[in-house]
Structure formats: C-alpha cells, structure tokens
Backbone:
C-alpha cells in the first residue's frame, strides 16, 4: 500500500476522506465508485474486503473502529465511511446511531 490513498493524519473534511476512499477503491477494484453508491449491493465489496477497509481506515487515519462502529451501515457507501472517519477523528457524536 502506498500513501496515495489517504494521509496518516486527521482529515480536514469529509470531502477529502471521500476523495481518498474513492481513489483507494478504484485502485483495489478497478472501478470508479460514486460516493453515495451502495458498495455491498453493487457487489464491489464482500465481507472480507470490508475488513480490509476497516484496517485501511484505521491505519490511514489513526483511529480505532470497534464495537457498535463496526456495523454494516458505516461501510455501505464512501459517504458513510467518510462520516465515520470524521466522527472518530473529531470525537464528536460518539453516541449517535446514524
């Protein structure tokens, strides 16, 4: 893995995370992904690849994704993953179940 996908620092915006994730997914799947596209319904992401996404996000943004944060809805779209990263990086809205 290269550092092209996402910096190992806290992101400034959800858009920056979305860009990094779409780049990562394009590299790994050879498919351009829209930020709102359901990755599981499209067949691009399997449960095994979802675990790779968890590791990628944790390493790229120095976060821990555990417990209730490991729900499928947090990984269904690039937008959902970006919201998760921002929430965990900023420590805001931890009790939210959105």
Residues:
């Amino acid at each position: 893995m290269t550092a092209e996908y996402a910096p190992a620092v806290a992101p400034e915006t959800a858009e920056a995370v979305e860009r990094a994730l779409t780049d990562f997914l394009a590299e790994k799947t050879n498919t351009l992904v829209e930020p709102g596209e359901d990755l599981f319904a499209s067949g691009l992401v399997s449960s095994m690849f979802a675990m790779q996404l968890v590791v990628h996000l944790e390493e790229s943004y120095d976060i821990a994704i555990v417990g209730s944060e490991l729900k499928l809805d947090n990984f269904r779209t690039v937008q959902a993953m970006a919201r998760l990263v921002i929430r965990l990086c900023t420590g805001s809205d931890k009790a939210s179940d959105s």
Q: What stands out?
A: Residues 14-29 form the longest helix (16 residues). The chain has one domain: 14-90. The radius of gyration is 12 Å. Residues 36 and 77 are 5 Å apart (CA to CA).
